[in-house]
From TrEMBL:
The keyword Transmembrane applies. InterPro entries: Surf1/Shy1, Surf1/Surf4. This is SURF1-like protein. Keywords: Cell membrane, Membrane, Transmembrane, Transmembrane helix. Belongs to the SURF1 family.
Length: 257
């Protein structure tokens, strides 16, 4: 076999030794760039969560103002097609009309009083038909005959909060109009099932004014807004800081020998 001069062997080793640090440096630069991009992305998400938190706090403040405001007249029929429920929901209203008890709808409910049903009854007013959630009844009071005192006729005045319709049923529990089984307060579907014609695109949660006989029980509206944006913002900013630190560390590391 041919003998390779020792000088050439030393030159080859030197070249290989120079390649490895260069390659390691390139990898560190790539890692640092990726970590920096991640830091920028995480920081952007943190800023977005801060903005979302400000929006949520403003929404809560506006809703609180609506709930405690003096009751107003509900929007007229002419305004129903263009009604924006984001601006109208939880508005306190007062309306007068006659309850159509024969077309009431029971919607399954889970409340602080336990499981039972919401009683949604059409209220026929001079301005049109509005579904009113008169309140909660336990299972043993679901039949109208079990709460006959609360089915009084004549003119009624209702004060309550405007609520957005709840289409498509509950979670994994669709409404079944044919079987008269309801898991959400879907105004349009209930109106079709009861042949009510043109009905307001919202319903009204009645306040705690007692009904004759004690049922239904009104005033059980739960106004809760999930507000975890600050936690998410701090998480994203922490990840941004860690990613930025990783990028700096990668650039400062000495290459392997």
């Amino acid at each position: 076999m041919d003998h390779v001069p020792s000088q050439l062997e030393h030159d080859a080793d030197a070249l290989g030794g120079n390649e490895r640090p260069a390659l390691s440096g390139a990898r560190r630069a790539l890692f640092a760039a990726l970590a920096l991009l991640a830091a920028i992305g995480f920081a952007a998400l943190g800023v977005w969560q801060v903005e979302r938190r400000a929006w949520k706090l403003d929404l809560i403040e506006r809703v609180e103002a609506r709930i405690h405001a003096l009751p107003a007249t509900p929007p007229p029929v002419a305004a129903w097609p263009r009604l924006d429920m984001q601006d109208a929901e939880y508005r306190r209203v007062r309306l007068t009309g006659t309850f159509d008890h024969g077309n009431e709808t029971l919607v399954q409910a889970l409340t602080e009083r336990g499981a039972g049903f919401w009683v949604l009854t059409p209220l026929r007013t001079p301005q049109g038909i509005v579904l009113v959630n008169r309140g909660f009844v336990p299972p043993e009071r679901r039949a109208p005959q079990a709460r006959s005192a609360g089915q009084a006729g004549g003119t009624a005045t209702v004060t309550g909060l405007m609520r957005a319709s709840e289409p498509k049923g509950g979670f994994l529990r669709p409404n079944d109009p044919a079987a008269d089984r309801w898991h959400s307060r879907d105004v349009a579907a209930i109106a079709r099932a009861r042949n009510l014609g043109n009905v307001a695109p919202f319903f009204v949660d009645a306040d705690a004014s007692p009904n004759p006989g004690g049922y239904p029980v009104g005033g059980l509206t739960m106004v809760r807004f999930r507000n975890t944006h600050l936690v998410y913002a701090l998480t994203w900013f922490a990840l941004a800081a860690l990613s930025g630190a990783a990028a700096v560390l990668a650039l400062r590391m000495r290459g392997g020998r």
